[in-house]
């Protein structure tokens, strides 16, 4: 579950290949790596996927879609060129996104005049006559094509333009003689991105440095599955011991890995002896395989520059959108019973 962030000042095409092969993905001007997200009211596993372009053969339905749309639309592949048409497509489609959303495409691609992009970003534009009806964006490495974002006019939904631009990206990568196509990730327990898997025989990254066939994914034992199992055991034991608690999801947990603060995507607050801004908590940290009992305080609202959060994040019964930091750590232990007994003692002493 370790989160890593890298802001490259210079990025050679071969270096982008290496980062993508190691489970990274791009976010604005950064390269980012994380095994989990707090989204859709849970801690969700992030699974990076890729397609081997040298082995890929388009399925019958993909060839049909390519052929049908080629008769209706005009396609242009060119370097990134943000304009009002593309910004309008982005604005109109933002309602479908979840989590943290860039305010506009210029922020999405960090198009700052004082900071030229180190990425070789291209775009696939699909036109109905003179009207732009779809666009997708991708980065080029030395032998990899990295898909970033696809947008389309919602009035053209029946033409499957989101899938169409992905197929055009794949075909373009094959024309260039590239080896891998990276369309981002899928999210465990959330089918939003599963449409990607219908295109071909994808591999997934196991977070230990290996790419494996997708049919092995259901049997994968990951840090995230261990985290979810341990936190569920924690919740079960709290309830069995009649300890009143509240589960909170913390979408900003990555700040704890990148700078300071709490590293836990989910936190159990002991409600009997917690105050408004200072909580007695029990958490589990997968990297250390230990439970932590201690006090956490929240002290400021986080403002992420050039981004907004979808409305579901502001459900105070589910998410905490303030900065959290450790106050006092009372116990760190791999023993769940010891953690529960410590909480019981604190309740008896402080209630």
Query: CA-to-CA gap between the ends?
Result: 35 Å
| CATH architect. name of the largest domain | 3-Layer(aba) Sandwich
The CATH class of the largest domain turns out to be Alpha Beta
CATH topology of the largest domain: Aminopeptidase
Quick one: CATH superfamily of the largest domain?
Answer: Gcn5-related N-acetyltransferase (GNAT)
Helix content: 25-40%
N to C succession of SSEs: EHEEEEHEHEHEEEHEEEEHEHEEEEEH
> Mean pLDDT score, rounded?
92
**Beta-strand percentage?**
25-35%
Number of helices: 8
- Main beta sheet: 10 strands, mixed
Q: What is the molecular shape?
A: elongated
Number of domains: 2
Supply Rg: 23 Å
Number of strands: 20
Low-pLDDT runs: none
| Overall SS class | alpha+beta
Could you characterize what this model shows?
The protein is an alpha+beta fold and 351 residues long. The chain folds into 2 domains: 4-219, Aminopeptidase (3-Layer(aba) Sandwich); 223-350, no CATH class. The protein is 25% helix and 34% strand. The strands form 4 sheets. Strands 4, 5, 6, 8, 9, 10, 11, 12, 13 and 14 form a 10-stranded mixed β-sheet that branches. Strands 15-16-17-18-20 form a 5-stranded antiparallel β-sheet. A hairpin with a 5-residue loop joins strand 13 and strand 14 (211-213). The radius of gyration is 23 Å and the shape is elongated. The mean pLDDT is 92.
